[in-house]
Amino acid sequence: MMHLKFTVIQALMMVFAMALSSPVAYGQGSPNVTLLDQLDQYGGYNDCWGYTAPDSREYALLGVVNGTSIVDITDSGNAVEIEFISSPSSTWKDIKTFQDFAYVVNESSGGMQIIDLSDLPNSATLITTYTGFQTSHNIYIDEPNAMLYAEGSGSQPIRAISLADPVDPIQVSSFGISSHDVYARDNVVYVSEGSNGTIGIFDLSTPTSPVLLSRFSIPNAGFVHNAWLSDDGNFLMTTEETTNKTVKLFDIQDLGNEFITDEYLGPSNLAHNTHIKGDFAYISHYADGLRIVDITNPDNIFEAGYYDTSSLTGGFNGAWGAFPFFPSGKVLISDIQNGLFVFSFDSNLPNDMSLDLAPNDPPIVIPSSGGSFTFNVSFTNNTNSTQFFDVWNTIIIPGGEKVPPTIGPVNLDIPAGGTGGKSNINQNVPGEAQAGTYTYIFNIGDFPNRTVATDSFTFSKSTGPTAKVAVGFEISNWDAIWDAGGIQSISSGTLPEEFVLEQNYPNPFNPSTTIAYQLPKAEKVSIIIYDLLGQQVKQLVNENQEPGHYSVQWDGRDQTGHTVATGLYIYQIKAGQFNQTRKMLFVK
Predict the structure, then answer these.
(1) φ, ψ dihedrals at 5, nearest 5°
(2) In terms of domains, do 328 and 429 share one?
(3) In the β-sheet with 188-192, what is the strand arrangement from edge to edge?
(4) Quick one: 390 and 246 in the same domain?
(5) What's the gap between Cα 519 and its chain centre?
(6) Coil, strand, or helix at residue 70?
(7) 150 and 57 in a common domain
(8) What is the pLDDT of residues 73-106, one digit of tens each?
(9) Phi, psi for 336 (deg, rounded to 5)
(10) DSSP string, 234-275
(11) 426 and 500 part of one domain
(12) Least confident of 139-153, 190-204, 334-348, 393-407
């Protein structure tokens, strides 16, 4: 009987932990991403694409399980479906455009539909169906060269199809190995080769005679799902549609010697598709919705904006497709459960958090025998709620290798509209460090894969008769001084209007967590932690405090300094007449 009671408590703890570890709330977005429209008229959605008509009106082509919805999105706030083209029922569908035609494939049956868009906004018409194949998971069109590439099967993994006559496609060749997705530009085709764990790059300058240029493996690959080329053609971003597998940016300038420059992963740890326009990648990130990643510096990509389209917290739910290529700057997301979303993204506005990093006494030149430098860092919360985040540094050494942090990750919190910082942080550079130029980077986000703000500076290390030969980066020799007291100063632009006790972060936690709270007026404040039997574990605060934003850390130890047992704990604030409790979970 006692065993049954303990099992029930354990189950409740697990449910509580899952509830508190869920990602950002449905419908929440960063300040620089604005929802313009949402349309949810059907019972299941897949991919999306966009079409800009000769009269500059803009249309979303939304994949639905049993058809394609064509939606006029020109007037913000007034998205209107113009036409619905029925198709065989299929969970999977892909849509691309060429001239004034849309090409639609599915994984059920029926071939490739060709839809005439030239009479929009009056109507759109299914004018023919190409039956050279019955099913395809993904297609892509190299528009300047009038070539469509379709994912196939069996002996024809990728089909090369001429659109010299847009309504009479003709297959001219096939190539490759078992694949999932395809992207093409300037007669070069980039194939995501699924369970093979590879990317294949092919020359289709002569469409009848494909030539393999390079095939490279994704390290520890999941299911290699899609890839997109940067505007300058020097970098390729890949997704793997596998939990905990990162979105990777590859330098592909030297085919045969491709290498990763940086990685990203959203809170739910499952990305679907990436698309690149200019300095940003637009990722349909399943349960995390739209994630926009700044790729200006390929060695240090970071999340520049987001909007969560889904109330679900994980798995193959939420954002399926994205389309950021409208001249107006509008961005589409197709959500599996919630339909079409239309956004605007202002890259000139800040994300949730911003960061400023400043070295003292630049330029910094470290002598050959070694030395140190100091710098200052400040953080700003651009939202209306307390933000909890990790900070850590990254160093890029001469030659381009990125090495592990010498600082952090350190968990911090900044109140709504507040700023915080640290001054005169000291970084040691050992004598055996190789000569050359280093890039010193500070990051805000969820360590290690999600960065939401970053800043950097460079320093150099001299060579000379006392310099040692570099044999690698030894992290233990790069001491950095960041004391455990957190940030040195916090300020907020506005005083709180009400008493607030925030949910602790992180939660569940080990070894420590932060509890933030707000006081609209001066009060005697008490914060006490209790176990589930109501016994006091530790008092964290017991003092008079002025109005403002506050936080306190708990290290999981009781009043005697001993680490507490795994389990649920209650924390309570009393401030004048204000009295509130919350629950948190400590795990070992």
Answers:
(1) -60, -45
(2) no
(3) 181-185, 188-192, 198-203, 211-217
(4) no
(5) 34
(6) strand
(7) yes
(8) 999 999 999 999 999 999 999 999 999 999 999 9
(9) -55, -40
(10) SEEEEE--STTPPEEEEE-SSTT--EEEEEE--TTS---EEE
(11) no
(12) 393-407
